[in-house]
Amino acid sequence: MKLHEQLLTIRLSQMKDAQALMDIDALVWTDRTAPEPVLWPSREDFLQHCPPASQLVAEADGTLCGYVGFRHPTNLSGNRHVYEINIAVHPAYQREGIGARLIGAAKIWAAQEGKLKLRLRVLSTNPGAIAFYRKCGFVEEGRLMEEFWIGDRYVDDIWMSFFLDGKKD
Prior knowledge:
By secondary structure, the chain is an alpha+beta fold. It contains four helices and seven strands, in the order βααβββαβαββ.
């Protein structure tokens, strides 16, 4: 069933979402999209790193199909205006606009929380994600050359950002 035939709800994550979020991580975060696959050893470990209300989740007709997580990149008070985000959409729901809706919701959420900047990291071997982030208004802010050895080659770690006040410098 296509997304346009379903009701999509975006809300803050809850304790009950943990297993579905862990399942999405296992499907999405592979050696093509992350420095190493994300496989949580336990529900408790997941909840320690991703507590309830640290993600906006998308539900299509009651099925959790994606999320955008957000956190402060450091504990420094001078860095509290920034959220670092990560986004994942279940493969069965990709290319239906859910990712764009999640990014849009994250921008609204972050602005309401008084944040000025969203940032993310993406591997140079993931051109689809890079194009998606650019389409969502993110710009490349920096690149760590040959930061990871994945498979049989070195891969760049690209840092991208979106300024919520429209600033791009």
